[in-house]
Specification:
The chain is globular, with a radius of gyration of 15 Å. The protein is 11% helix and 39% strand. By secondary structure, it is mostly beta strands.
Length: 175
């Protein structure tokens, strides 16, 4: 990812925190907005918490999520810029893929996973270097350094359900 702003958008998207590596990208949207799930209801204000060494979370920025008519949300970053995101159910236990447009002038989409547990949204940025490369390749993923390019994936729901999540990178809590 090229900027902290983009990372924040995808992370809060889903949080929202700092992705050290392991970006998941595509040129075209892999999920249709018709499959978007309104996991945040009408939206609201959320406090971001970044995960630090030792598994603790430290208080971060406040962000706002605004529900859009198309089924997605606008992630309003700390600079008050709106970034479109959508949530798509990909597995049990509250697991969702988050699809985020790269930005106004940048082509493509970025993804991360979130698990919703009670009133908290935990964000995961699966590291492509730590995944089973043979399984990913069989599903149509192209691995370039620390990025998973998913343009060749036929079933994104299956792909995202198979990622090894690791530890959450951040979490969001409604304020």
């Amino acid at each position: 990812m090229t900027s902290l702003r983009k990372r924040g958008a995808v992370l809060f998207v889903v949080a929202l925190g700092l992705i050290a590596s392991g970006c998941i990208k595509s040129q075209e949207a892999k999920f249709s907005l018709s499959s978007a799930v309104p996991v945040l209801g009408d939206g609201g204000r959320y406090r971001m918490y970044d995960r630090v060494e030792g598994g603790k979370f430290i208080r971060g920025d406040m962000i706002e999520m605004r529900k859009r008519q198309d089924g997605g949300y606008d992630f309003i970053d700390p600079q008050k810029e709106a970034i479109p995101v959508s949530f798509h159910r990909v597995g049990g236990g509250g697991l969702h893929a988050v699809q985020s447009k790269n930005g106004k002038d940048a082509p493509g989409y970025e993804y991360l996973l979130v698990r919703i547990e009670g009133g908290e949204i935990f964000t995961y940025a699966p590291d492509c270097e730590k995944q089973d490369k043979a399984k990913l390749t069989a599903l149509g993923v192209e691995i370039k350094k620390d990025e998973c390019i998913i343009d060749g994936v036929k079933d994104p729901t299956e792909l995202f359900a198979k990622f090894s999540l690791g530890e959450p990178t951040a979490k969001l809590v409604r304020e």
